[in-house]
Amino acid sequence: MKADILKVVMEKDPNQREFHQAVGEVVESILPVLDRNPEYRKAKILERLVEPDRVVLFRVSWMDDRGEIHVNRGFRVQMNNAIGPYKGGLRFHPSVNLGILKFLAFEQVFKNALTTLPMGGGKGGSDFDPKGKSDNEVMRFCQSFMGELFRHIGPHTDVPAGDIGVGAREIGYLYGMYKKLVNEFTGVLTGKNLNWGGSLIRPEATGYGSVYFAAEMLATKNKTLEGCVCLVSGSGNVAQHTVEKLLDFNAKPVTLSDSSGYIFDEEGIDRDKLAFVKRLKNVKRGRIKAYAEKYPHALYTPVDPALDYNPLWDHSADCAFPSATQNEINEKDARNLVKNGVKVVCEGANMPTVPEGVDIFLDSHILYGPGKAANAGGVSVSGLEMTQNSMRLSWTREEVDKRLKMIMHSIHQTCLNAAEAYGSPGNYFKGANIAGFVKVVEAMMDQGLV
Ligand code: NDP
Ligand code: 2IT
C-alpha cells in the first residue's frame, strides 16, 4: 500500500524528491490506521490527501535599486482545509520550488491538526533570495508578490505567515500591500508586529515550543534540561528562541550555524552572546562567522562540501535541536549524534532528518521529537494571533505563553496516546503522524467527497 501510493506520487511528479520523502514518512506510519478503518481506503483518503486542493503559481516581477528588472516565481500550495482555513508560512529562498513547498504544505496539514486549533494546511513562497538585498528591494519584491497572492488568501480562506527568509520585515511589507489592495484591516497574515495586530510571543513561539516539547519528553524519564549541553543549528528565528528558552531552563547551548558554517562555544552561548547574535542576524543581517570574531575563544568551522557529514552534529552533547532546514541531518550525522551520547533530538526545523537518520533515532530509543510535533508552537501561536484578531483584543505575554505551554503539553500527550494505541509506545514519530492523520481524515469523511 505504501509502495502503491508512493509510486503514483513519484510517477506523477518525478522531480519532487522532498515531497516523496514527506509522503513516504506519513504513509508508513499510518498503515495500521488504514488496516483498522477499511472505509478510509474505500474513500481513497490517501489519494486525496497527496493532491493539493489547489496550487497557485505566479510571476513576481520587481525592480532592484539600480533600475534592473528581475523575475521570480511565486507559489501558494493550498493543501487541505478539512479542519480550518489553509494556514502555513511563506519561504523566500533560492532553493524554493514546487516540490519543497508541497512537502512543507503536506507536513503542515498534520502539524496543524495536532495544535488543537482549527487550521488547515498550506505553504507558499518564492525562489527570491533576500540575502544582500536592500530594504527597498525587499519591499518592492513583497509588494509585487502580494499583488497576485492577495486574490487567493483571506482571514477565512488562507492565512500565510513567515518561514525561512520571511520575518517581521517581510510580513510588514506584505501586509501593507494586502491592506491597500483589499481595503480591509483583517488578520490575513500572522507574525505581524505587535502594534498593528501581532501577538506577543509569536516571534519566540517556534523555538520556545520546541524546548517545551523537549522538556515534556524528558519529564517522561523524570529528567530535566538543567545542565544539558545542547547542539542547535541555524541562527534565525527558530534557533535564536530555542537558545533563549534553553537558557531559561538552565541548559547550555553551545552551537549555532548558517549555510556558510557553524560556531562552537564550549563555554556556552549566554544571554549577552545571544543578544549579539540577534543584532547580528536580525538587524545587521550578517553571518554567524562574526560570532567567533567577537568571541575569539569560540571555534568557527566553515562548511566543507567535501565532507559527507556535518561536524556540528559530531560534538558530545545531551540534546540536539536541528533548527535550520530540511535534511540537515544525514545518516552519518544521526549515527554521530547517537554515538556521542545525545539522548534528545527535538526538531525545530521541518523534516531536518533524512529517513535513514529517523530510523537510527527510533532504533536507538532516544527521545526523538519529530518536527510536525516539536515545532508546532509557531503555528499554534499564529492560531492564537488569529483568535486575538477576531476578538480585536490582545492577550498578555503571560497569557499567550501559558496557552503555548498547554498546547505543547497536549501535542506531546496526543502523540504518546496515538503511539500507544497503535502498538508503538514512546514513538513520537508514529504518534504525531497517526494523530494528525486521524483528525484530518475524520473531518474529510464527515464532509463527503469534495
Ligand atoms: P530563518 O530564515 O529565520 O533562519 C533560517 C536559518 O537556517 C538561517 O540560519 C539559515 O542560514 C539557515 N539555513 C536556511 N537554509 C539553509 C540551507 N539550505 N542550508 C543550511 N542552512 C540553512 O528561518 P526560521 O528560523 O524561521 O526557519 C528555520 C526552520 O524552522 C525551517 O525549517 C522552517 O521551515 C522551520 N520552522 C519555522 C517556523 C517559524 O515560525 N519561523 C515554524 C516551524 C518551523 P542562512 O542565513 O545562511 O541562509
Ligand atoms: O512551518 C511552520 O509551521 C511555519 N513556518 C509557521 C506557520 C504559521 O502559519 O505560523
Characterise this structure.
The protein is α/β, with parallel strands linked by helices. The protein folds into two domains: 185 residues, Rossmann fold (3-Layer(aba) Sandwich), CATH 3.40.50.10860; 165 residues, NAD(P)-binding Rossmann-like Domain (Rossmann fold, 3-Layer(aba) Sandwich). The chain has 17 helices and 13 strands. The strands form three sheets. A five-stranded mixed β-sheet has the order 1-2-4-3-5, sandwiched between helices. α2 crosses α17, α9 packs antiparallel against α10 and α16 crosses α17. The longest helix is centred in the last third of the chain and has 25 residues. The chain is globular and about 60 Å long. The protein binds NADPH dihydro-nicotinamide-adenine-dinucleotide phosphate and (2Z)-2-iminopentanedioic acid. The site of (2Z)-2-iminopentanedioic acid (2IT) has 11 residues, from β3 and α15.
